[in-house]
Design a protein that fits this description.
This protein is α/β, with parallel strands linked by helices. Helices cover 48% and strands 12% of the residues. The chain is globular, with a radius of gyration of 19 Å. The structure holds glutathione.
Length: 257
Amino acid sequence: MSSGIKIFSYLPNPRVWKSLIAANLCGAEVEVVGDEPKNLPNWLWDYDARELTEDDRANSALIRKGRRGFTNDLYKTDEFLFAHPFGTVPAAFDLKTKSGIFESNSIMRAVARSGKPNNLFGGNDHVMASRIDSFLDVNLVFSREHQVYILSVEKMNEVLYNRMKSAYEFYLDGIESALKVNKFIAGNFISLADISFVCDVGYFLKEVNQKDVIKAQGFELISAKFKDEYPQSADHLVGLSRKEEFSTVITDGFISL
Ligand SMILES: N[C@@H](CCC(=O)N[C@@H](CS)C(=O)NCC(=O)O)C(=O)O
């Protein structure tokens, strides 16, 4: 068992919440370091992440062009990029080995594996563990489409909109079907599949905050009829978000169904 996990990220971040919720459910140790999104260009991205000093700013070897979600230059150490070859946040480290763990679903899985014995990730049941991973893989595709959609929301076009709509329908059709036969997404117990669902679908429903921007460009909110089209998913989302392990992590008002 590892000694715990440290996560560096912009905050608040639903992708970090996945790990914090998992930690609450399995008693794992998770430390979070970070700042508001707009401030991360003023941080040194490193195992010992911290605000930049004048010397850091003068060190051109640290400067990397933001590639996904950041347009400014970012200051990342070589050690950070060795541990995190894709250079993204949330960026997690195993506290004992300093090994890098990236992708929010994988970080959450590492947290679950580092906690007290639990079956959030499927435990010793390899088939169930793989089934949970299957849900997480589909969730990542949905979440990646969402990231592209949000980053381009002010310059919407037909192709982008239809890609998002189809990723949304694909993921939620599957979740709705799964919830028709089981109480939880992967089976009859709570798993990482449920946690990623709450964080990523909850995040997607914030689309409503962009209603005017989307409508002004001639498009409708993709999630406008979420509750009617996906009733089991909506109930599951609300039910889980009210549980203490979730509600103490999720920012107040995030899930407003
Ligand atoms: N699918 C990844 C998304 C991570 C990601 O794309 N992070 C972006 C910010 S939203 C990033 O760190 N970009 C760094 C850069 O632009 O260099 C996850 O779930 O962790």
